[in-house]
Amino acid sequence: MIDAIDIVKKFDDFTVLDGVSLNVKKGEIISVIGPSGSGKSTLLRCLNKIEEIDEGVIRIDGEQLSRHNCSKLGMVFQNFNLFPHMSAIENVMEAPVIVKKMGKKEARELAGRMLSDVGLQDKADSYPGQLSGGQKQRVAIARALAMKPEIILFDEPTSALDPELVGEVLGVIKKLAAEHMTMVIVTHEMAFAREISDRVIFMDKGKIVEEGTPKEIFEDPEHPRVQAFLKRMM
Ligand code: ATP
Ligand code: MG
After folding, report:
1. pLDDT tens column, 18-76
2. Would you give the DSSP letter of residue 60?
3. At what angle do helices 88-98 and 104-117 cross, to 10 degrees?
4. Which of left, alpha, beta for 221 (phi over 0: left; psi -120 to 50: alpha)?
5. In angstroms, rounded to a whole number, what is the distance separating the alpha carbons of residues 32 and 2?
6. Is 112 helix (H, G, I), strand (E, B) or coil?
7. d(CA 46, CA 54)
8. Ligand with the closest atom to the CA of 38
């Protein structure tokens, strides 16, 4: 579904992604872990065309990534990125109306269903300022789902949340996993990554240092940097 080959991304003369290749198959769940500054967010931002790559190729379903097919990828950010002046349902309707030119009535119905799917049918008319962090993140997931993406990229979806709110967001992601949604998840939640992923990727200094099944990475990592990182995280 996604085929990224030898991606290089530089900010001025600083190489943030140094030849990263990643293949994501339909229905696959991939977790990306690694130290701060290793390039995890930048990788997702390149996959979603928020950032332009300097070298390499990204293909979606065999076609080169462009502004025409990048809406096949949904994105959920650490800090929710909701529009504060719009209610929950208006946030979810916005992209179908603006990007897909969907009628408002149809978009509202769709958004209502998406909010129900994340357990927020009763918060449709609340504004982001009236919602908890966990609720805001669930609205953000509903907003991504409303575009019917083929794959959702999550960038640390729970790291801005109070600990007691993490579970409700992870619960929604687990539900999507049970529905076979294709997902790439950058996370610091090691137990979650281990439970949910088909494959775990460890990044450091702009490179993929090691990848494997959760069992391989968490029980028997080969690379000393992965061993040291996991020792600190667990
Ligand atoms: P974290 O775990 O802290 O979120 P990360 O692995 O997501 O880290 P990135 O945000 O991808 O790391 O950043 C990788 C490197 O690129 C960092 O050194 C960062 O300072 C740098 N960087 C990111 N965005 C920019 C930018 N727009 N301009 C310049 N440097 C940037
Ligand atoms: Mg990041």
Report:
1. 999 999 999 999 999 999 999 999 999 999 999 999 999 999 999 999 988 888 999 99
2. E
3. 130
4. beta
5. 15
6. helix
7. 10
8. 1
| ∠ Cα 27 28 32 (to 5°) | 145
Ligand 1: lining residues by beta carbon, under 6 Å: 11, 16, 36-42
Q: Which two tokens stand for residue 6?
A: 């030898």
Residue 195 CA, ligand 1 centroid: distance in Å: 27
Rg (CA), the chain: 18
Token representation of residue 108: 């509202």
Q: Report the C-alpha gap between 37 and 205 in whole angstroms.
A: 7
Give the amino acid at 201. I
pTM for the model stands at: 0.96
Cβ proximity of 195 and 188 under 8 Å: no
Residue whose token pair is 């930048």: 42
How large is the ipTM? Answer: 0.97
Interval between CA 87 and ligand 1 midpoint (Å): 31
Please report where in the chains the tokens 């805001």 appear, as a residue. Answer: 136
What's the rounded Cα separation, in Å, for the pair 93 and 89? Answer: 6
Q: Which atom of ligand 1 is nearest to the CA of 39?
A: 11
Best mutation site among 7, 8, 10, 11 for ligand 1, i.e. most ligand atoms within 8 A of its Cβ? 11
Q: Mutation test of ligand 1: which of 42, 52, 53, 205 has the most ligand atoms closer than 8 Å to its C-beta?
A: 42
Tens digit of pLDDT for each residue in 73-127? 999 999 999 999 999 999 999 999 999 999 999 999 999 999 999 999 999 999 9
Nearest CA to ligand 1 atom 2: 36
